[in-house]
Amino acid sequence: MDFRFEDIGPAEVKRRISAVEPLTESVRDLVDAVIRTEVDDTALDDARRQIDDIVARLRTEEKPGGFGVPFTRDLVGMPWGNAATGVRNAIAPPLRPVTHAGVSTAEVTLGAAYEGPGGHVHGGVLALLLDQLVGECASSGTSMPHFTGTLTVRYVRPTKLGQVSLRAEVTGTQDRKAFVSGEIHDSEGVTAEVEAIMIRPKEFAGRDEVMAAIAEATARD
Ligand SMILES: CCCCCCCCCCCC(=O)SCCNC(=O)CCNC(=O)[C@H](O)C(C)(C)COP(=O)(O)OP(=O)(O)OC[C@H]1O[C@@H](n2cnc3c(N)ncnc32)[C@H](O)[C@@H]1OP(=O)(O)O
């Protein structure tokens, strides 16, 4: 697992997010524009050249592999490359889950980049979002990371592109397992339901073990 520790606090986290998030949003807009544009071939080729230049500039300094999940000194995770939520990831819709009294919710707009059947959301994207939401729901209850053991999605009817709402709730626990139910709604009701078994890996028995895993990974870097 790629953990590492950065000795920073909330103000520095906020600064870093505000520095990179506008770029992520612009790239997300770019992805949408490439799908929907009707400009001619010359304009497409010109856009490609300009984008290649920008990519080359960004790659002059880059880390190997993925972004990982660095932790602040307060043990706040920064999963900024996460495929569903990452503030550096233009592929992420992004999902912004909120958990209150054991219930996790999120609202997200799924545009052209998330299309599967014409005009509708790809089933894999719905599974991705539900997976993240049930993970955050299970993890926030104990403040310990829970990974997906089994995720069962029932696609009730096609989900139209546009705004959707997600909800998840822990329905039971057994040792390191949390059983989580959830659903996705569009403006006409439920479109997909999920049942998940989320498991806290045995190496994460408590906060001390998580700190030890982060310290060990940081020492290896
Ligand atoms: C605040 C922080 C925020 C952090 C917010 C974090 C949000 C994360 C959201 C993203 C979620 C993901 O996508 S996570 C990525 C996708 N998932 C993964 O990559 C997981 C890969 N699999 C694994 O790492 C492992 O197999 C685990 C951790 C799932 C289980 O390993 P383990 O811990 O060694 O489990 P083990 O001792 O064998 O079994 C423990 C119990 O669980 C059961 N069990 C084992 N595997 C499974 C399974 N796949 N499905 C169902 N049940 C299972 C066993 O029967 C046993 O039940 P009994 O005999 O005790 O009854």
CATH-defined topology of the domain at 95-205: Thiol Ester Dehydrase, Chain A
Judging by the overall fold, what is the CATH architecture of the domain at 95-205? Roll
Largest sheet: 6 strands, antiparallel
Q: Tell me the Rg in angstroms.
A: 19 Å
**What is the CATH homologous superfamily assignment of the domain at 95-205?**
Hotdog Thioesterase
Helix content: 25-40%
CATH class bucket of the domain at 95-205: Alpha Beta
- Average pLDDT number: 93
Order of strands, main sheet, comes to 3-4-6-7-8-5
Distinct small molecules bound, one entry per kind: dodecyl-COA
| SS strand fraction | 25-35%
Describe the protein's topology.
Blueprint: E1 3-5, H1 10-36, H2 41-58, E2 69-71, E3 98-100, E4 103-110, H3 123-142, E5 147-155, E6 162-174, E7 177-186, E8 189-199, H4 207-220
Parallel strand pairs: 1-2
Antiparallel strand pairs: 3-4, 4-6, 5-8, 6-7, 7-8
This protein binds dodecyl-COA.
Describe this structure in words.
With 221 residues, this protein is an alpha+beta fold. It has helices spanning 10-36, 41-58, 123-142, 207-220; strands at residues 3-5, 69-71, 98-100, 103-110, 147-155, 162-174, 177-186, 189-199. It has four helices and eight strands. Strand 7 and strand 8 form a beta hairpin. The protein starts with a strand and ends with a helix. The chain has a domain at 95-205: Thiol Ester Dehydrase, Chain A (Roll), CATH 3.10.129. Strands 3-4-6-7-8-5 form a six-stranded antiparallel beta sheet, with helices on one face. A two-stranded parallel sheet has the order 1-2. Bound molecules: dodecyl-COA. Dodecyl-COA (DCC) binds at residues 77, 131-132, 135-136, 139-140, 143, 145, 147-150, 175-177, 197, 199, 201-202. Residues 77, 131-132, 135-136, 139-140, 143, 145, 147-150, 175-177, 197, 199, 201-202 line the site of dodecyl-COA.
